[in-house]
């Protein structure tokens, strides 16, 4: 019964993960907002690009400083640790806090916007665990 399966799929998994890509894809106004050529060409504010790349620029500066102080091995070791920690994730239907990554970056003692207003119990991605896991493994 394909109709029943599509009904479960629609309710349990975010629509953006299953949306068809191509020239006939519909634009989702609720998730992406109104389309505008100007918004696609230029950032809306001069600091927007800087804020999007803040963590990358901060890591780049820290790696350069670490290389100057301790040598080439220190930033390479830290980058390998970052890559290893990013690969460890919970199942797709559970919230992952990335505590190890925050500890490596030194953000474990900082309280930010995402700590207060990113409550996983209010998340909209919670769905049927079996369907989400099958999608992640490529079985669906």
TrEMBL record:
Transmembrane regions? none
On whether Chaperone is a keyword of this UniProt record, the answer is yes
What are the record's GO terms for cellular component? cytoplasm; nucleus; proteasome complex
A GO BP entry is: proteasome assembly
- Specify the domain of life of the species encoding this protein: Eukaryota
Keyword field: Chaperone, Proteasome
Q: Which InterPro entries match?
A: Ump1
What the record says about family reads:
Belongs to the POMP/UMP1 family.
What is this protein identified as? Proteasome maturation protein
Provide the species name. Eudyptes chrysocome (Western rockhopper penguin)
Which taxonomic lineage does the organism of this UniProt entry have?
Eukaryota, Metazoa, Chordata, Craniata, Vertebrata
């Amino acid at each position: 019964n394909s109709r029943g399966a599509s009904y479960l799929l629609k309710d349990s998994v975010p629509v953006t993960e299953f949306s068809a890509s191509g020239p006939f894809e519909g634009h989702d106004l609720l998730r992406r907002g109104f389309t505008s050529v100007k918004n696609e060409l230029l950032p809306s504010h001069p600091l927007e690009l800087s804020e999007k790349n803040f963590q990358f620029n901060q890591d780049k500066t820290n790696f350069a400083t670490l290389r100057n102080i301790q040598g080439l091995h220190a930033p390479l070791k830290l980058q390998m640790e970052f890559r290893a920690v990013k690969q460890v994730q919970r199942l797709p239907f559970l919230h992952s806090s990335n505590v190890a990554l925050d500890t490596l970056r030194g953000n474990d003692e900082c309280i930010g916007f995402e700590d207060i207003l990113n409550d996983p119990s209010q998340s909209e991605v919670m769905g049927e665990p079996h369907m989400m896991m099958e999608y992640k493994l490529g079985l669906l």
